[in-house]
Amino acid sequence: MSSAAASPNVVSFASLGLRAELLRALTGEGYETPTPVQAQAIPPILQGRDVLAGAQTGTGKTAAFTLPLLQRLLSPTQSASPRRPVRALVLTPTRELAAQVEESVRVYGQYLPLRTAVIFGGVGINPQIEALRSGVDILVATPGRLLDHLGQGTLDLSHIEIFVLDEADRMLDMGFIRDIRRVLALLPARRQNLLFSATFTDEIRTLADGLLHTPIGVDVARRNAESELVRQSVYLAEKEDKRALLAYLLAGGGGGEKIAQALVFTRTKYGADKLAKNLGKDGVSAAPIHGDRSQPQRTRALADFKAGAVRVLVATDIAARGLDIDQLPHVINFELPAVPEDYVHRIGRTGRAGSVGDAFSLVSPEELPNLAAIEKLQGKKITRCEASGFVPPPRPPAENGGLAGVTPAKPAPRRPSPASAPNTTPGTRLTRPASPPPARFRPRGGRA
Prior knowledge:
Layout: E1 2-3, H1 20-28, H2 36-46, E2 51-54, H3 61-72, E3 88-91, H4 95-108, E4 116-119, H5 126-133, E5 138-141, H6 143-152, E6 162-165, H7 168-173, H8 177-184, E7 192-197, H9 202-211, E8 216-219, E9 230-236, H10 242-250, E10 262-265, H11 269-281, E11 286-289, H12 295-307, E12 312-315, E13 330-333, H13 340-347, E14 357-363, H14 368-378, E15 383-385
Parallel strand pairs: 1-8, 2-7, 2-8, 3-5, 3-6, 4-5, 6-7, 9-14, 9-15, 10-12, 10-13, 11-12, 13-14
Helix pairs in contact: 2-3, 3-4, 6-8
């Protein structure tokens, strides 16, 4: 694999050889200067080369493959028929990422005669079938729903010219490797392959070796690097104090400013639901987003958050990839992830497009090993902070010498002994006294 040369003299998208229609769309969106990954990836993709690209999250890798993909599909052999086949396939791990990639394709390709569609689960399949029947040039999909369409015969991949595997490392984390292989088996042997990922792992290298042909390598950041635009900090707290501490920090306690909006991460779906509900009780508008929520619920939560109607979006790691929120100022880890790399993806939701962001984590004593693993991955210590003025909520009082907050076990019911049996008189029905406890429960040792 060869590496793309750095392009220090590139000062505009026009110098990359992009068409006027694409430049017009970029200007309309306010983009003038390509990011490093765009500057290095766009030229070899325009040349038809396979590319293995990695960059810090939030550095514009979606545009790095979307722009040249649109240009390459404008070939003289492009079919004018409304039943034109799918010629480019972008595979993503999550619904949110699929929707946002498809939106980017539409925005950048708004002045081009190309059609795009997105398919993912959680919504009705019939509208997707109708869209495919009407003719699609570029298809963005998640693996599960893509295989559903293939199984029903509503999709043909035999004309694919460009295949993009986006967020490949997350694909592997979520167990999609078998689905990826099933899809690859249905693609034409001759095609251009683009593999994009926020991080490079050994597993990604192995996947790339079997997918890419003499690829150009683009790596504008060290492996699993956190964004330099994200200011990280840690607040140490007992597990039962985290909710109160979070509310305190959101309100501007500890010497900081009131946090207008934040993306808060939990480990579990149940934890996300519970935290969102409790924040609502604390007077903070919050909405959960995770895999058990329906697609309309997830879409509404994200839309409300982007519109400012919701102050806190509480998410699981499904949202660590694919959430593209402009000017998101804060990411908060209510619980640290079990996998250190997921921490990098979480905090990568802020500090994007040249803007500085803040990411802080509430860490309990039980999570200190997770924190150590994250710091080892990053090669540096994360700043410890104290929330000055924060007073933890009172603990439940201890009972009967037990631990605070722990309910003592109830004593076993006492059985009446023969000596305590009521006296009887003639003609009275006798009550059989309770049997003594089994031998294995009798006191052992000396006499009474």
